[in-house]
Design brief:
Layout (H helix, E strand, L loop, with lengths): L20 E2 H25 L6 H21 L5 E2 L1 H21 L13 H9 L2 H20 L16 H81 L6 H22 L7 H4 E3 H9 L8 E8 L5 H4 L3 E3 L2 H17 L3 E8 L3 E8 L26 H4 L6 H12 L3 E6 L7 E8 H4 L3 H14 L1
Parallel strand pairs: 4-6
Antiparallel strand pairs: 1-2, 3-5, 6-7, 7-9, 8-9
Helix pairs in contact: 1-2, 2-3, 3-4, 3-5, 4-5, 4-6, 5-6, 6-7, 9-11, 11-13
Length: about 450
């Protein structure tokens, strides 16, 4: 049986996906920057009347505008950028603003704080390596703007110059603000991705539960509808057996037909039985009793089925005691389905082993059949995925199975607290292995209940 049951990987929880930034987002942000820079330059030059290198500044703004036009023409609006390409565009935006600040007073420009904007976008969307690189380059440019820049646009005949200590304070403010905001935004983005992943996982689980509940309703309907025809089949088989006599050539087939009809009726009774239909004496079972009951219908199918169990070597006295839990129909059905599959696909033998210690209970079901198909390894356990047809005997005859049996069994076992793992046996051995692991507390009955059961059993003895 396969390596492990399929796991769900939600991109963005642990690692950033490769294409996490839409081109439209970068383009819109740059258009906002272009419009803002144009309005600011126009206000300073034409309204306030301050002299500034307007040609250089307008050339820088025009370069950003043309870059946007090129990107819109080159790529569709929903195009997602690779991390490297997005980092390159954000680096350009930072450098463009740094050069614009160089021509308009350097670090003394009131808009110097905007130089951290590309870093914030990177922290929210890109891998940490790109964010660190952009932040380091931003700090380096800010440091350069502290000492090298064109004079601040100011009133004619007056040179506006901030003291070096004050400019150093602005540099420290920009640096600390950059680091704090980038870290904070990154944490918020990470938590947002975790919430999205958790929501997706919850929706998936709810979808699986909804499918299972739908199957529960179908099972109840089937139990109701099949009761009458099964009774008719049983009566006709008994009448034929009585009329033909025990020496007839079909007497053995009729006896088998009766026994199988009885088995079907028992299954239907289990489906319609109320949860509280059992008394406490029969409600408690040990792990080996559970395995024996689940395997009982498949012991006479021509395959050797062995059941064994023991405590893990080195377990303490209390932990070495065999786990006793409450009888769970879902657990019984899930184990029975997996054992049935193992018997169907096995060539000669199915080995069922239980082990336990103070923290967990483990059941391994191993057969010597062909094992799981590699191409189905990741989808086994999903509804309507079947491996029927790869085995022998009964398995080969049931190649038209819907693949719901293992889906239901796996879901019921997981409801009971089990972790289901699948793998193929290693060469030279062949076959499949299913490993079920419960926390001991999830399987074992509460201590008070176990004491109650013990007193009932003592009284019965």
């Amino acid at each position: 049986m396969p390596s492990k049951s399929p796991t769900i990987d939600f991109p963005g929880v642990r690692n950033h996906p490769g294409r996490n930034v839409r081109l439209a987002t970068i383009v819109r942000l740059r258009w906002i920057a272009v419009v803002g820079q144009l309005l600011t330059l126009a206000f300073v030059h034409f309204w306030l009347g301050f002299e500034l290198p307007l040609a250089y500044c307008m050339a820088l703004v025009a370069l950003s505008a043309w870059l946007n036009v090129f990107l819109v023409i080159q790529f569709p609006p929903r195009h997602r950028l690779t991390a490297a390409f997005a980092a390159t565009l954000l680096t350009y935006d930072m450098l463009q603003l740094a050069v614009l600040l160089y021509f308009t007073g350097g670090i003394g420009n009131p808009f110097v704080l905007l130089i951290v904007a590309p870093c914030i976008v990177s922290a929210a969307t890109l891998p940490v390596t790109y964010t660190v690189a952009i932040c380091a380059l931003t700090l380096l440019c800010t440091y350069g703007l502290t000492y090298e820049y064109w004079p601040m646009p100011w009133y004619s005949g007056i040179r506006f110059e901030l003291p070096l200590l004050y400019k150093t304070g602005i540099l420290a403010s920009v640096g600390t603000g950059l680091l704090f905001v980038a870290f904070y935004v990154r944490r918020l983005a990470h938590e947002g991705r975790e919430m999205s992943a958790a929501l997706a996982a919850t929706e998936l689980i709810l979808a699986r539960e909804q499918k299972l509940h739908a199957l529960d309703g179908l099972a109840a309907a089937a139990a109701h509808e099949l009761g009458t025809p099964l009774s008719t089949i049983y009566l006709i088989a008994r009448e034929l057996q009585r009329d033909l006599g025990p020496d007839h050539s079909h007497a053995e087939d009729l006896a088998l037909l009766q026994s199988q009809s009885d088995r079907c009726r028992e299954i239907l009774k289990k489906l319609t039985r109320k949860p509280d239909a059992q008394d406490p004496m029969h409600q408690s079972v040990s792990i080996l009793e559970v395995l024996s009951d689940a395997a009982a219908p498949y012991l006479e199918l021509g395959k050797k089925v062995s059941i064994s169990g023991s405590a893990v070597e080195g377990a303490q006295a209390q932990a070495a005691a065999e786990p006793i839990g409450l009888r769970q129909p879902g657990l019984h059905y899930g184990l029975g389905n997996i054992i049935e599959n193992a018997v169907d696909f096995a060539k000669t033998e199915v080995d069922i082993k239980a082990s336990w210690d103070g923290s967990k209970v483990i059941v391994e079901i191993v057969d010597d059949g062909p094992g799981f198909k590699p191409e189905l390894m990741d989808s086994i356990g999903d509804p309507y995925v079947t491996t029927r047809g790869a085995g022998s005997g009964k398995a080969a005859k049931e190649a038209s199975g819907l693949g719901l049996g293992f889906f239901i069994a796996k879901t019921l076992l997981e409801r009971s607290g089990a972790v289901v793992e699948l793998e193929n046996r290693r060469a030279p051995e062949t076959g499949a292995r299913v490993r079920l692991t419960w926390p001991r507390g999830a399987f074992a009955a509460p201590e008070g209940w176990r004491a109650h059961i013990g007193s009932i059993r003592d009284a019965a003895e």
